Each structure stands twice: as structure tokens, then as C-alpha cells.
Amino acid sequence: MYQLHLFNLIIPFNYQKPIYDGFILINKKNGRIIKIGSQNDVFFVNTSFGCEIKQNKNSICLAGFINNHIHLAYKNNYVTAKPNEQIEWLKNLVKTSRNWSEAEKQEIIKNNIQNCLKNGITFIFENTPFGKITATEIEQSPYKNNSLIGLEVFGNSEEQAELIFEKSVNYLNQLEAQFTDLKFTLSPHAIYSVGSSLLKKLMQWANINNKILALHLAEFNFELELLQKNYLNPNLKEFFEFLEVSSPEMKNNSSQGTMQYLLNLATELKNTDLLKNFLLIHFILTSASDLEIAQKFDLGIVSCPQSNLFLQNGLPDYKNWLKYNLPFGFGTDSLASNFDFDFLSQLKNIYWLSNCQLSAQDLFEKVTSIPAKQLKLENEIGSLEENKKANFIHFELKPENLNKIKSLSEQDLYTWLLMNLNNNLIKQVFVENKPII
Ligand SMILES: [Zn+2]
Asked: How far, in Å, is the centroid of ligand 1 from the Cα of 257?
């Protein structure tokens, strides 16, 4: 009924101290942590009798990673977007994925799930236009109880806002009834693909139902041109014609930026707290006003730096985010704008690209405890603590490396882990105490 995992080093995250020669006691029935601590504790000595013990040699254990923004239903077509050709990239993405059969989509989703697991990702916030196929695959995977599925909503037509909203809610209700173990929400795609009336309806819906709205925001130049200058890029117009849907209108345009636009919508609804349900994805092309509003309402931000670089959008101004103390986590986005789901290499890159202004420890928290808080799941996942799910990654190291790190300060230890851990060192990944790779 109980299982003890022993590791040379445990990194629980949520800014708790690393534990050398540590143990995790797990209730096998529910896959949750009963206790975590040092093997020198009296508690350990008293409990270890009669327990199933798993001694992991030369081992480091990290809390499992959370990928707070992904689309499982795309694959890499090895086409990087050229600067200012992102609309072409979007069109290509839609064109290609439209031609996939149901079986092909299933295969792509399956492969992406396996890839995420291999990379130590134990929870995903998935966003999809193919709700049912995605839900079917997730239900059969370890992400069954470890995911949130955002059903993507599109629609610029003001006249059809009510209809699209009702259809979206009905679809969500239908999937919730069919897949009772899975968690769903609605994800308005972006402000250039979801009209203001529809977005307002979704904001009210999220508030009543306590749901999170993931919204791609301030990602592309054409999005800002549309918002600030009411300029509809001809390529974007052609893209919407190709999709046979209405082009965006942006009547409530705001010269101050995307957050002022959202704040205006909330103000029209006489409830600025409606902003708090948003999870802002990307948030690259921001003004001082955007950052101030995000700070004021304590909004969750999910940065997908590899996708931003892939699409030639540049990186967000992390230095400014730190100045405004914005809580942000990381996502990978889909393989259409990324080459892998390798958080360890992504964190390393951001460490260097931010001129080391983001500490190694903070970077790790951005794929563990911070996204857990953004999902309001901080009591379930995001760190290794009592009563939380036993979602963790087991790395096996060379013995000489383990000896080396014992003398490091805490800060240096995190930097060492960031520089030295890689996916080849992952021995096993556990989701609710079940080894899944
Ligand atoms: Zn995305």
C-alpha cells in the first residue's frame, strides 16, 4: 500500500530546500505523496520497515514539469516562418492540417503525447480545434487526470457571436458528459480571430463557471496594426477569405495596446475582475500600459520563447517583466512552431538569452510551481509536497558528478542542474506514482 522512493537528491520546487539523501513516501492507492524528507529523519527510520522500498542509485528527483501551452494536434513541417511572413505560415498550418485524415491526426497526437512524457512533462494545458479526437487520445494516456483541454474558439462575425458562443458551450458540455474524467475549458484563439462580442460572452462565461481563458495575445505585428491603426493586412484579409470566415473589425481599437483593449471590454461589462480569468499566451509586443494592466490585475502569462523565435517574433522583454514582477510560466506551443518539447534545453537557452537575469531556480519554477498556480492547481501539482500528486522525474547521474554537487551553494546547485541535466539522463518519469516511460 505504501512505497518509498529513495534518491540521492530531491528537488521539490515551490522554493523549498533541496533534500540530499531524501525519501518520498507514497500512497500507492491514490498515487499521492504522504511524506517527503531526509533519510536521516526519525520519521524515515520508523516508517521504512514493512514498506516497499525503491532505492534509486546515483539519482536526482525533480518535480514533474507542467507545459502550460501546447497544441498536440500539429506536427513539424520543417518550415520556419520568414520575417513578416507569419500569415503565410498560419495559412500553411491550416491548409496542411485540413488535409489530415482522422487517423493521421490521432497518430500525431499520440506521438506528441509520447514526446511530452519523454521530456518529463507530467501535466499539459492543451489547446485544440479538434476537441473530440484530442480528448479520446488524452483519455487513454497518463494525461487523463493531468491535463486541461481548451477547446479553441474562432469567430469574428458580430452577427454570429451568439450562435458561435452557444455552439462552443454546447460542444464543451457534450465533451464533458462523454469524457467525465477530463477537464475542459474554452480557449478564445486570439483578438484578431475572435470578435469583441464573442470575447465578451466568453469572459462572462469564464467568470460564472470559474474557467481559465487561454488567449494568444500580442504575438504578431499584424495583430497590433489591426488593433492600433485599424489596418487590416491584405494577406490577413486573404487568409480569412481562404477560411471562408469574416475578417476582424476591431471596432474597439485601442492605441495603447492589447491589454487596454481587454480592459475596455471588461469595463463595458462593468466588471474589470473579468480580466483575471485570462491566461495570456506569448505577450511579446507589449507597451508600458500592457505591463501595468497585467501587473495591476496579477494576470498569468505563458511565454513560449522557442515558438516566438521560430516565428521570427523575437523574445518578450523578460527584463521588463521582472521589473513589473509579472508572474509567468512557460509553454512549448505546438511542433508547428517548435522542434521539440524539451524544456531543459529551452530553460538553458533562456538563461543565456536573458543574460542570466532569470536565475536557474526561477526558470525551473516557471515550469513547475508557477504554472500550477496559474491553473489554480497548486494544491495538486507543481511541486513535491505532502498530499500532492507523485508526479516526478528520475535522473541518473555519474557518481562523481553527485559527489561534486554536494559542496555547492543552493544557488549554484540550481545553475549546475540547469547546465548539466538533459533528457538523456532521464531514467523514468512518474505520473501519480506510475512509471510512464
Ligand atoms: Zn499556441
From this structure: 20
CA angle 398, 48, 408 (to 5 degrees): 35
Query: What are the residues whose beta carbons fall under 8 Å from the beta carbon of 356, sequence distance 6 or more?
Result: none
User: Each residue of 38-80: pLDDT tens digit?
Assistant: 998 877 767 776 788 999 999 999 999 999 999 999 988 766 6
DSSP-assigned beta bridge partners for residue 9: 20, 60
Ligand 1 geometric centre to CA of 93 (Å): 12
By three-state DSSP, how is residue 7 classified? strand
The alpha carbon of 217 and the centre of ligand 1 are apart by a number of angstroms equal to: 10
**Dist. CA 218 → ligand 1 center (Å):** 12
Q: How far away, in angstroms, is 304 Cα from ligand 1 center? A: 8
pTM of this structure: 0.96
Task: Tell me the residue type at 162.
Answer: E
Give the distance (Å) from ligand 1 centre to CA of residue 333: 5
Q: Each residue of 209-258: pLDDT tens digit?
A: 999 999 999 999 999 999 988 889 999 999 999 888 888 876 656 778 99
Report how far ligand 1's centroid is from the alpha carbon of 71 (Å).
6
| Domains parsed from the chain with CATH numbers | 2-64+383-435 (2.30.40.10), 65-341 (3.20.20.140)
Residue ranges with strand state E in 307-408: 328-330, 392-396
Q: How far apart are the CA of 334 and the centre of ligand 1, in A?
A: 6
